[in-house]
Amino acid sequence: MIIKSLKILDFRNFEKAEIKFDTRLNIIIGENGQGKTNIIEALYLLTEGESFRYCKNENLIRLNQPQAFLQSEITSDNLNYKVTLKLAAQAKNLLINEKPAALTKHNKIAAVLFSPESLSIIKESAEERRILVDQLVEQITPTGQAVIRDYKKVLKTRNKLLKDVREEKISYPLGLDTLESLNPSFLKLAAELTYLRINVLNVIKPEVEIALNKIHIHNIHNIHNIHNIHRAVNFDFEYLISEKNHKNSSLENIVEVLNNRLAELQPMELKLGGSLVGPQKHDIILLYNGNNSRFYCSQGQQRSVILAYKMAQIVYYRKVHGFYPLLLLDDVLSELDLSKQESLISTLNQTETQTFVTTTDVLLLSKLSMNRAQVFKVENGHIGAIA
């Protein structure tokens, strides 16, 4: 997949810009606060349909302007796409080849993002880890996008119903009857999403372990004392439903577990006015040599796990779809120690993915030893190519 160009109008701090990209490596240099991440965000919006920064539409539009406009020409799997996104305060409109399209991810257009925030996922909330895995579900499973979309819809409907019952906007008997009619579709989608998450984690686990051991080898090369060399690193995971690991559960078993949990907790849901059962409540534990990486790993080891996961995501995406996704590195190299920089750069040199790197440190550029590169400088919402 290749993004040939990007047009911007009134997006974030950019009034107007038109950029043509190199097919291999694009380096975006600038001081903090000048707009480097806004370029990465624009590319992510066009490929993934949403921002990786929590914000409302109005925050994406340049101050005092009614709307923003993004457009890219993309080649993927020997097909050409013109992707256009129009942003207003209360609406997003997506066009693909001038035709209206749903705001769902397109399996021929995808991106993998590294950011300082993504390197901190292990020590953040369970929601961050669920988002990490759900992106993989959407990218590599045929039904993932639809299941996630439909589950979010039925969860929203169920939560509103529970809230209306609690606030006595509808009668308790009517609310209970409506809830009982909604529960079968809710539980079906909840079980399907849970099973998809577990399945993709089991599928990608070997690739994560390979990448993690490559990082480990780089760390060994930087150790002068041979006695400090440890055994190979093992990667695994746990999938927790009500604090119990269901990593090896079948779909039928998951359905049974969720049914039983719903029967137990529905009275409390009605009292509190929200759903207490479902994949939005599950946790994913990433294990480093059998230990919970959140509590038993250093920050460097935690970053190694996420780095390995993302590297594996790139490799496995190609296995499934036959081409690499876009790779976006938003100021991430400066967040990594030298050995992890070398591991990531080594992986990049071995793949053909189009890569975008933002940085404030021009000295990092000498380490990115790819054959072709285009360098851009961003200053106060303006971007220009550097010969």
Descriptors for this entry?
alpha+beta; 6-stranded antiparallel beta sheet; 6-stranded mixed beta sheet
How would you describe this structure to a colleague?
This protein is 43% helix and 24% strand. It is α+β, with helices and mostly antiparallel strands. α3 (126-140) packs across α4, α5 (172-221) crosses α8 and α5 crosses α9 (338-350). The radius of gyration is 23 Å and the shape is globular.
Short description:
This protein has 387 residues and is of the alpha+beta class. It contains nine helices and 16 strands. The strands form three sheets. The chain has a six-stranded antiparallel beta sheet with strand order 2-1-4-5-6-7.
| Tally of contiguous helical segments | 9
Major sheet details: 6 strands, antiparallel
Q: Per the principal axes of the C-alpha atoms, what is the gross shape?
A: globular
Order of helices and strands: EEEHHEEEEEHHHEEHEEHHEHEEE
Report the span from N to C terminus. Answer: 24 Å
Radius of gyration: 23 Å
Unreliably modeled segments: 222-229
Helix content: 40-55%
